[in-house]
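Reopening this ticket.

The earlier resolution said the output was attached, but the attachment link was broken on my side. Pasting everything inline this time so it's all in one place.
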Amino acid sequence: MGKIITVNFRGDELYGFENDDGVFVALKPMVEAMGMPWESQRQRVRKDPILNEGARLIQVPFGRGGAQEQLCLRESLVQGWLFTIDSTRIKDEQVRQRVQMYQRECYAVLHEHFIGKAQRPEMEIDAEPDDKPTLTERRQLVTEARQTFGTAAARQLWFRNGLPIVPAMLKPEGQGELFEIPRLIGSDAT
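Inline output:
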C-alpha cells in the first residue's frame, strides 16, 4: 500500500490509497457514512463488469480490531458507482438525503470539469464589518465554513481573516473535497 489520503467530506472521514496502479477509495466508510447497508453495495460493485474491473482489496492499517482488507474502487469510478444508486428506492428519508448529497457533489464535480472554474461568475464579497470579530470568533467562522462549504472555503476564509500562518499552510491542501483526490496526491497528506 502506498500513501493514505484522508478526505473530510461534509463531516465524514473517507479514505483513499495511492498505489502504483492508481488511487483507490475505500467504499465501506463511504457507504456507512451515507447510512446504507454495506453488503448490497459490495454486491453492486462485484456484479457490475466495469466497477468490478476497478475494484481492489487493499490491506489497510486501521479498522475495527486492527489491519484488515477493504474493498476499494478506483477513484475515477466512484462517481459512476454513486450514480448506480437509485435514491428514489431508499425508504429512510435521512439515508436518501445523504445519498443525494453525495450524488449532488458528483454532478457539481462533473459540471466543473466540463464547464470549468473560469466560466463561473465571481461572487461579490461584503466589505469587512466595523467591529472586527475576535480571534476565537474568526476560528469558529472557519470551522463552520469547512463544515458547510468544505476545506477550500475554510482555507480561503482562514487567510482572509488574517489568522496565523505557518509555511506548511502555503503548500497545497492536505485534505479536500470528495472528488479532489487526484489533486491531493502531490501534497504531504498521509
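Reporter confirms the inline version is readable. The longest strand covers residues 12-19. Strands lie at 4-9, 12-19, 22-26, 55-60, 68-74.
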